[in-house]
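User: Hi! I'm working on a homework problem where we have to compare a predicted structure to a textbook description. Could you give me the structure for the chain below?
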Amino acid sequence: MPLHQTGAMTEHEHRWTTDSTHSTSEGMVTYQRCRCGEHRVALSAPILQAHTSTRPGRGR
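Assistant: Happy to help. Predicted structure tokens:
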């Protein structure tokens, strides 16, 4: 029995599963893989959150 596939691989839609995710200064890095053996690394830009502050005695 051969260890490799002798026929042509069929194209398919990858079904990515996440192996790990890490927060970095550049954003969120995600390492993913597909059942077919393909791997990919995705980088998401950091999410900037607006901070609001309230001062006692001021308002409305």
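For your comparison, note the following. Residues 23 and 29 are 6 Å apart (CA to CA). Residues 1-7 have pLDDT under 50 and may be disordered. Good luck with the assignment!
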